[in-house]
Protein: Peptidase M28
Organism: Enterococcus faecium
Amino acid sequence: AEEMDIPFQYTVISGGGTDAGQMHLTRDGVPSVAITVPVRYLHSHTSVIHEDDYLNTVKLVTELVKRLDSETVEKIRSYE
């Protein structure tokens, strides 16, 4: 995000979780990343996000996918 000048908010969530929290423990480990969008009323029928947060998340995920080649994934898997 910083390299691409994409605004972001960094936080560590003390409760809850995502599917990535379990996926990285599967078998020998599955490289996982959790990118979330700031949201109000997450577990309700009326969740609300800011459009800029959504659009910036799309930009970030697009750049991440462009940069993930097999060599990069292997480095992540082997903790290099």
Q: What stands out?
A: DSSP finds three helices and no strands in the chain. Helices lie at 20-23, 51-67, 70-77. The two ends are 21 Å apart (CA to CA).
